[in-house]
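Ticket #4471: complex job returned nothing on first submit. Input attached below:
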Amino acid sequence: MAGMPGLEIQRRGEEEDIFDSTVHLEGSHFEQGFQDGFRDGVELGKVEGREVGLKTGFELGEEIGFFRGCVNIWNAVLQKDPSAFSARAQRNIRVFDQQLNNYPLKDPQDERLQDSLDSLRSKFRLIMSLLSIQLDYQGLAKVDHTEDSLF
Amino acid sequence: MDATAALPTSPSATKGVSLRLVQELEGHEDRVWGVAWRPCDGSSILASCSGDQTVRIWEHSSGSSPSSAAWVCKAVLDSSHNRTVRQISWSPNGNLLASASFDATIGMWEYVGNEFSFIASFEGHENEVKSVAWNSAGTLLATCSRDKSVWIWEVLPGHEFECVSVLNGHTQDVKMVLWHPSLDILVSTSYDNTIKIWTEEGDGDDWHCAQTLGPPGSGHTSTVWAASFNATGDCMVTCSDDLTLNIWDSSADLSSANDDDSAKWKHLATISGYHDRTIYSVNWSSLNDLIASGAGDDCIRIFSKSQDGDQEGSQSYELVQKHEKAHTADVNCVQWHPKNPRLLASAGDDGIVKIWEVVGDLPHV
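Support reply: We reran it on our side without changes. The output follows.
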């Protein structure tokens, strides 16, 4: 049947090798481009990933370090004056100290990473309340302040 | 503060119970978020809180029935907050009034010798505090906030307050906290569609989430705005943006070591099809066993447990009164009087506090 040129080409089989590369030109260019892009993407991804990892690791280290510094100071105060803080505050500082020591800092894949951090943050805010202090450290992660709620 | 004639009630009463408006209490300059009856002798004092940053105290003049229109504004408590006051709560002995504010603080007023004095302000939450509640013994205070946490405070001698625990668990804004009427069990409701039950483990400030009531299975499918226990605390009702009320069996002892169903609170019934706007408040009377709800369609509804079909393990509730246009805007809070089974107070976005009297045969009175 006098159909479209494409159809005729298909039926004639191997004789059309010379047209194959033309017909599949777009396809082969796509393939090539995809391979190039993928390769470049992997490289760039590694770089970005490293940057994000570095940033996140730094922030986490900074926060844990900040907590550690606070605990050290509180312990130093208690050594000088064991009655400086209430019994409840002291108990919580001890627990906080222990939680800090147990924090899986070396293992980024540890599942407990986020939950332990949330728990540490809560404990820290509890201690701040018990000691009646408000610390506003710049590096401290803050709750999203996008908009004050109205209801 | 003006006396207002009783408004005609809507013709939806199925059992001859209706709401008669006793009085409209005007004065607040912004929406009224909550009302709280002072819990002792006669309870002739009502507190209300508002977006106008104040708490108002209304008193009924002695000598006449509290269902007569003789309520006046006794005091305006201002200067303790610089943003909306979202909820107030009286201590069980009626001597202290705690206020939860969007300014992230909790305020404490002492009521002594007929005078109110501001005695403390405590900070801790990172942003808007949504609710404050006293336990039945008056020894613990709970607060919750948009910062997703629930805090428990201990009341120390000399009106000092010390934070006992900061509880995380909710993944969104926590709307309300409420204590069991006799046990130290805390309930919190949240924008994350769940209700969490918190108990103390052991003896050392160790609070944890004993159970979460929510999907999958049963529970609400949208923000849970409020909760209320019945008189004995063996049942609890919750209300939600999903337009339903849920009734829960709260009799199980959560401190039991069992991990099976006998140590869990269970869903008993869903009251649906009656509300077509968000239900913001629900309150279960400890006197007449009726459940009142306040919703975004300006109505106050009253539900009663059905007398028929009382099979084991199943309960059903029916609407006994739908009072339309209870306010000219959203009804934010409904609270039954603790001593008089016929009185109900409501707070609305229209800036008005209203006192209602239930007329008709009360089921358990």
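Chain A touches chain B through 18 residues (CB under 8 Å). Closing as resolved unless it happens again.
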